[in-house]
Amino acid sequence: MRSTEESLKAEMNLGKPALASRYYAWVVLSLCALFLFYKYVLQVSPSVMTTELMRQFHLNGAGLGNLAASFLYPYLIAQLFVGPLLDRYNPRLLTAMAIALCGLGAIFFAHAQTLKIALLARALMGVGVSFATLSYLKMTAIWFKPKLFAFVSGLLATGAMLGSMAGQAPLAWLVSEVGWQMSLYYCSLFGLVLALLFYACVKNKYPSNSSVSTEPTIKLRDIIQLLKLKHNWLLMFYSGLAFSPLAVLGGLWGTTFEQTLFHLNKPEAASLTSSLFLGLAVGAPVLGWLSSRFNKHFAIMWIGLILSLVGLLCALYLPVSIGLEGSSLFLFGFGTGAFMQGFTLGKVLNSVWLTASVVALINTGDALFGSFTEPLIGKFLDLS
Asked: Transmembrane segments in this chain: where (predicted)?
């Protein structure tokens, strides 16, 4: 009898840490998702400040595109280093410092009196946010079972797109109420508080059942081997080409486009543009769940591309009503959510301890294509 009672107590004691670890994993993931939320608020913020920024820094369309893209150039370069750093060292301190850097960049941007300072401030933000996606997926690999990776990584896009939506209508309203500079001060305060929360709440110790080694075993030859694999480069190009249309339309020119098309004020146009972010926020986890349920990653990628193409064409060429435009943008965003399958395949096709490095390479495609398409579209608009 006594041995039975002791065994039951032992099972209960073993279950408690596992249960606590399971709940704590979602706490960690929520903080990472807030970082993604913050990243996209900062990234898309110029789209609701176009008039103010062009007036403040005496810019044309191409100049504004370059200012917005200055966020992406350092982001692109930083990807080369952030992935290996997160794989080699514990991500807690690195991620907290990155969030704080974003907050400081927002302060500098709000203070900027010259274009050079504004470009530098956007660059600082770009370096900081380069940790957001990689930290999220690294923590997912550490704290969640491999079979949940596709679904949980799909939630990444949900957090990111909620940030994009917050950077549209709510931020547009805030800009109209207190001005673009004070709005950025509020954004910086959010980032600094989040950095403190992240450092205070995230543990250095990994769960005992983690599939990721806590030892800094990654070496240069591992990175070289990763770069030699053709499928990693194909996934990078797929991710960049699939995501860049949404980044250009939602991140800079979408609000202005909808204002001109339907004669809306800025908050109304920003709300309409938010439909594509809502679509991606829903589409990424749904398509991630379907790919895990049926183990059809490639099929989901193709279906997503077709849906996003149909939605984009309808949004651009069939805008007969605001309702149809919003539905088309939602479909465009929903289909674009399949781009997250690139990260899932990258993890599956490479060693688990190289998760952040693989994600960094694939994620480079988003910044690479976005960095030249934003000013390119601005140039076309100047010529039209």
From this structure: 21-41, 61-81, 93-111, 117-137, 149-171, 183-202, 233-253, 273-291, 298-320
